[in-house]
Design the sequence.
């Protein structure tokens, strides 16, 4: 090519660029800034970023005529004192951290020694737990010590109060939430201002629960915690007897809810068998007449008594539409009810196919009666969540529901609503081909760009979503309650 021709091409190229800049009214500085945006586009986006980016598309409110606008939540609430478990136990007894000290999972805490060994057991397993301290004087001593622990914090406690608080903060502008729990002078100012509190729920003295937190890799009594979690204990009379249930039911006719959420059954196991058997029957009688057009969700929490959970399952599950639970409750129900794969001790989150089989068994078992209302189970564990519904049920928008639960599990634990920009804070454990059941070879390939997976098995629809696990969680208390609350808010009911 000659020099003249070459110069001609260069001139034409410059003219073309100049014309483009003139057309868009850009100067050179603007053009340079625009070109930099291409440099910011990642060539190899991480799987964690892909999952976080997918939430915007997946998570949508249900159609207005299917969504929940008036939600009533009861019946357990208290003040939580949150502190490092190691600090409290060291203050009570400096030798508590000695290697080789006994660790055992007591169903209830009869002494401070029981508290030490039960905390050590749950810490070593990386498992959350909740127990009742029987001796009022022992609990008073521990409460007094807790007030001396540096950086101890006071928060809303109790599954129902936490779910109501979360719903109040995330519900759409024209939504309303009422809470029916024991509300004393310390708890009242902690509640969201939009929460409606019935006058029948007000009490003179608050109930206190201790939340002993520990981090992943933290050493205690010669054992290392495999994951971050917490151990909860209390000497709580009002909530352990579910005394707020009758006032809560009475308040429903005034509030006229389109969704009822109930929690607190797990606290009954701290009572004598004669009491909880009678109380579960009384509560069942109060639930039975409630309208089938208003769905009822029961949120479970940590239990150890197989007889008590069996009574709850047999008398309550068929009276409600939805159940929320984690791996500990799922495993206990499975063992108590003779379900599959749960003959051995649970050590960490169950595999996906094992959990799916147990959820399927549970939904079929407790919805088999023609009178049963149960059509939905929301299961949440550290690396993933699963919702199962009867395919012909009235539940809608469950793909959004399951994704909303996994999103809040991540963003609340990390205290970061923009995880897509900070993928180094989280870890995605789900990858590759996912086996759906132990009993057959069905599987699906996991795609982080489209992380919510759905499938149907016989008459049950499954919805699966992975969790972006926070590497350094800032707060674990109330995470399960936030997950179920978010999943319900994004659910529809026809």
Sequence:
């Amino acid at each position: 090519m000659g020099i003249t021709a070459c110069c001609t091409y260069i001139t034409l190229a410059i003219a073309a660029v100049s014309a483009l800049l003139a057309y868009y009214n850009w100067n050179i500085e603007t053009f340079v800034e625009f070109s930099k945006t291409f440099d910011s586009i990642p060539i190899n986006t991480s799987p964690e970023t892909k999952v976080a980016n997918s939430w915007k598309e997946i998570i949508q409110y249900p159609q207005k005529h299917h969504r929940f606008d008036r939600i009533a939540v009861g019946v357990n609430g208290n003040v939580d004192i949150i502190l490092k478990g190691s600090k409290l136990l060291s203050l009570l007894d400096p030798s508590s951290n000695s290697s080789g000290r006994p660790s055992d999972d007591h169903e209830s805490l009869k002494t401070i020694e029981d508290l030490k060994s039960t905390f050590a057991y749950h810490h070593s397993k990386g498992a959350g737990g909740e127990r009742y301290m029987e001796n009022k004087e022992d609990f008073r001593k521990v409460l007094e010590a807790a007030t001396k622990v540096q950086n101890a914090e006071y928060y809303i406690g109790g599954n129902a109060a936490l779910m109501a608080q979360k719903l109040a903060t995330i519900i759409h502008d024209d939504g309303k939430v009422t809470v029916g729990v024991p509300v004393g002078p310390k708890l009242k100012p902690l509640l969201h201002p939009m929460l409606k509190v019935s006058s029948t729920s007000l009490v003179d003295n608050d109930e206190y629960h201790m939340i002993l937190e520990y981090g992943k890799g933290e050493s205690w009594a010669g054992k290392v915690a495999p994951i971050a979690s917490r151990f909860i204990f209390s000497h709580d009379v009002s909530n352990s007897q579910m005394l707020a249930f009758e006032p809560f039911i009475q308040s429903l006719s005034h509030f006229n809810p389109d969704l009822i959420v109930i929690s607190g059954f797990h606290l009954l196991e701290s009572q004598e068998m004669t009491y909880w058997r009678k109380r579960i029957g009384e509560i069942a009688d109060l639930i039975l007449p409630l309208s089938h057009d208003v769905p009822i969700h029961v949120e479970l929490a940590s239990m150890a008594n197989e007889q008590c959970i069996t009574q709850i399952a047999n008398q309550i599950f068929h009276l409600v539409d939805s159940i929320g639970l984690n791996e500990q409750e799922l495993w206990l129900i499975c063992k108590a009810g003779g379900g599959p794969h749960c003959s051995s001790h649970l050590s960490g989150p169950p595999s996906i196919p094992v959990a799916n089989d147990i959820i399927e068994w549970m939904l079929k078992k407790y919805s088999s009666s023609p009178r049963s209302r149960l059509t939905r189970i929301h299961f949440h564990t550290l690396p993933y969540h699963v919702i199962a519904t009867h395919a012909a049920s009235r539940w809608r928008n469950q793909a959004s529901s399951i994704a909303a639960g996994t999103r809040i599990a991540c963003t609340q634990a990390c205290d970061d609503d923009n995880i897509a920009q900070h993928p180094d804070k989280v870890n995605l454990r789900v990858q590759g081909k996912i086996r759906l059941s132990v009993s057959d070879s069905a599987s699906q390939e996991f795609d982080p760009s489209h992380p919510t997976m759905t499938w149907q098995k016989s008459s049950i629809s499954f919805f699966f979503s992975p969790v972006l696990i926070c590497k350094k969680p800032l707060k674990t208390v109330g995470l399960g309650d936030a997950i179920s609350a978010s999943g319900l808010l994004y659910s529809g009911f026809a």
Observations:
- DSSP finds 15 helices and 23 strands in the chain.
- The two ends are 74 Å apart (CA to CA).
